[in-house]
Specification:
By secondary structure, the protein is an all-alpha fold. The protein has three helices and no strands. It is elongated, with a radius of gyration of 17 Å.
Length: about 120
């Protein structure tokens, strides 16, 4: 009985981690042109901790990384867009920067939830 309960709980947490990870990946694709944000998120997510405090530390790192890149993109996306396509690129970059300011921190929070689940 104890083994059944333990496996049920473990399976539930693994399912929650999988769903939240997929959700986070999906929303990040909306604003991540060069995939650097996604690659770094994967590095953070692949850092498997052996205890609860390690999972919490990785979750905090994911949240901080999401906020840092959200603010950074607010300034870099319009510049990159302008370099590629002039004014239309600047406007598209500004929209992506504003979107990233919202989406990337949310992605970090979702990643943190999946790391601590």
């Amino acid at each position: 009985m104890k083994s059944f309960l333990g496996k049920t709980i473990s399976g539930t947490f693994n399912t929650v981690e999988s769903i939240t990870g997929s959700l986070s990946n999906g929303i990040t694709l909306l604003v991540d042109d060069d995939r650097t944000f996604a690659r770094e998120r994967e590095n953070i997510k692949n850092d498997k901790s052996q205890h609860v405090f390690g999972g919490l530390a990785n979750g905090a790192k994911s949240i901080a990384y999401g906020f840092k890149n959200g603010f950074k993109g607010l300034f870099t996306q319009p510049v990159q867009g302008a370099e590629k396509s002039g004014l239309p690129g600047f406007l598209l970059g500004a929209a992506k920067g504003i979107g990233g300011l919202v989406i990337k921190p949310i992605s970090g929070v979702i990643d943190a939830a999946s790391k601590t689940a």
